[in-house]
Amino acid sequence: MKREPDIVILSDVHLGTYGCHARELLNYLKSIKPEMLILNGDFIDMWQFRKRYFPKEHIQVIQRILKMAANGAKVYYITGNHDDILRRYSDFSSGNIHLRDKLILNLKGQNYWIFHGDIFDLFIRYSPLLSRLGGQGYDWLIRLNRFINKIRVAFGLPRMSFAKKVKHSVKEAVKFISDFEDTALKLAAEEDYDYVICGHIHRPQMRVEEAGGKTVTYLNSGDWVENLTALEYQWGRWSIYEYDEADYQYVNSRLAVREVQDEEDEVMQSRPSIEEVYLEILGKAESGRRPAS
Of 12, 104, 244, 277, which has the maximum CB count within 10 A? Predict the structure, then answer.
């Protein structure tokens, strides 16, 4: 039985990188049926993209989302810094899929400002080369982290996140995260928004503050590299979903009924290359933006 939240927000999935937990995300996506799905930046990591690495599970995540859109869910793809190449096609729509740089919503009389958040990152705005080098280093750290965690699990030890430890131990990183949230709250109050929703910093958060005489709620959906979290809106309330492997495991494997093969699994048998997928998407975007003769 699928859960049916009104809105689900994901950010920083980083498909195409070794750190992406695509299998876990696929489990989560198969368990929900939202009316609206918002991909708040860095969904596909085009900075780290290598054609030699785009596993089956990564393709299946894309196909699952396309299937959700075909079944009626509104899907908003908001661009981030790692998929900034798509910003040239902003405001493109095709069926239930919409490409945007930001999204403004009104829910129950309250105004929402939704964007990735990289506009607050001075390194990205003024030194993209340093940001790309930092992204590569982060990806290698995640790969090392996965290898170490396999060893820890084999010895019965809990998993650990190197990236999270670094962020929490380096004063500059802690200060950046705090400044990021404070800046988002301040600007949202100045623009008269009741909620501001970001991604980018890979830190799931729900925070209510007074800013400029206005009460503003800051939300961050986290990521699917370190935290495996999402934001869900149901019954007029927001909550942070955190992936738990136990929710997707059977108590007794002998009692498990083999799932009927999904349409996207059948497509996988003769799937096109990832380059062909990109060319098709970008080709449709170009034709959609080209003025009629």
Answer: 12
Q: How far is CA 198 from CA 41, 220, 241, 261, in A?
A: 9, 5, 15, 35
Evaluated on CA atoms 252, 26, 200, 161, the torsion sign reads: positive
**Domain span including residue 226:** 7-286
Is 97 within 8 Å of 75 (Cβ atoms)? yes
Look at residue 2 and tell me if it is in a domain: no
In a domain, 92, yes or no: yes
Per the structure, the count of domains in the chain is: 1
pTM score = 0.76
Quick one: pLDDT band at residue 211, thresholds 50, 70, 90? confident
> Is 80 part of a structural domain of the chain?
yes
In a domain, 1, yes or no: no
> Could you report the per-residue pLDDT of 177-187, keeping only the tens digit for each?
778 899 899 99
Q: Which helix (H) or strand (E) holds 281?
A: helix 274-289
Q: How confident is the model at residue 155 (pLDDT cuts 50, 70, 90)?
A: confident
Coil vs helix vs strand at 147: helix
